[in-house]
Structures are given as C-alpha cells and as structure tokens.
Automatic annotation (TrEMBL):
Source species, domain of life: Eukaryota
Biased composition (Basic residues): 76-86
Name recorded for this polypeptide: Mesogenin-1
Keyword flag Transcription: yes
Database matches in InterPro entries: bHLH_dom (IPR011598), HLH_DNA-bd_sf (IPR036638), Mesogenin/MesP (IPR040259)
GO MF annotation, one: protein dimerization activity
Region (Disordered): 16-45, 59-95
Low complexity: bias regions: 27-45, 59-72
Tagged with keyword Transcription: yes
Residues of the BHLH domain: 83-137
DNA sequence: TAGGCCATCTGGTCCT
DNA sequence: AGGACCAGATGGCCTA
C-alpha cells in the first residue's frame, strides 16, 4: 500500500514537475549510449598513438599552463616508462568505462518522465536528476 | 557550422 | 614502486 501510494504521489508530482526541468530538457541531447560507446574512438589502440606523446623534453602540459608544479620539477621528474604509461592508460580506460556503465544503470532508476524526448539523459543530467529524485523521495517519505 | 557530449590519453598527486 | 583518482587536452560524432 505504502509503496503504491508513494509511487502514485510521485507520478503526480512528476506531472507538476515537468515544467520545472522542461527547460533543461531543451538541452537534452546525446545519442544512444551504445552508439556513443561504440562509435567514438572505437578501438583505443587505433587512437593510441594519436597525438601528444612526446614533444621533445618540453612538457606538453607545462605549455598549456595546467596544474603543474612550478619550475624545476618539470625536468627533474622522470617520465613514466612507456610500458607503465600504457598500463595506466588501460586502467584509466576501464575505470572510466565502469563509471559510464554505472551512470547508465543509474539512468534506469529514474522515472521515464526525465527523458521524455526519447533521448537518453546525459551524464550530468543523470546526476542532477538523480539528486532531485532522491530529494523528492525523501520529502515524500518525510511527510508520510 | 558551432556547440554539446563523450571516450581516451596523459601527467600530476595521493595513498598503500 | 605502482595503483587510483583527478583534471586538462584532444578529436570524433551528432544535432540544431
């Protein structure tokens, strides 16, 4: 009984809620998850030698002014071996994939109202709507 | 064509 | 030393 009531209440709230995030949905975009997963740089190995590997001894990131340790470290820090770098890249790839997978799963727990246009939510939207959803659920439970 | 989204690579930092 | 995490950079795909 409780669950059904909550669900019904939720759904009715979603109706009124639509307008709230309707504007956000304008920015809804993105292709299907799979297509984005597969179509991108489908084979990592293919892209591996892509670009900025070694640019002499001049640190690429140093040039872009990113979070770097000032001055001296640039030269003193020994570069990772190629083998170790490749392993790290592989791990990072797996890590990001599991993150993406988790987000895809999370998306399934959100009411369909959130992706009304038939397009899957983006990662950021998924996270933001999840926060909203949890807040609403908490609210409802709090008033039960 | 511009802008958004995404996957991947990479170097830095922190932790074990 | 090596793994995990983070954030910047890059390039491809897609849509308005």
């Amino acid at each position: 009984m409780d669950l059904e009531d909550v669900t019904a209440k939720m759904l009715s709230e979603w109706k009124s809620h639509e307008s709230t995030f309707g504007e956000d949905q304008d920015s809804l975009q993105s292709t299907s998850p799979q297509s984005s997963m597969d179509s991108m740089c489908s084979s990592p190995e293919m892209c591996y030698s892509s670009g900025h590997q070694e640019i002499g001894d001049f640190s690429f990131t140093g040039f872009t002014g990113r979070r770097t340790t000032p001055t001296s470290q640039r030269m003193s820090k020994p570069k990772m071996s190629t083998k170790r770098r490749m392993k790290a890249s592989e791990r990072e790839k797996m890590r990001m994939r599991s993150l993406a997978e988790a987000l895809h799963q999370l998306r399934d727990y959100l009411p369909p109202d959130y992706s009304k246009r038939g397009q899957p939510l983006t990662k950021i939207q998924t996270l933001k709507y999840t926060i909203e959803y949890i807040n609403k659920l908490s609210d409802i439970l709090g008033h039960a």
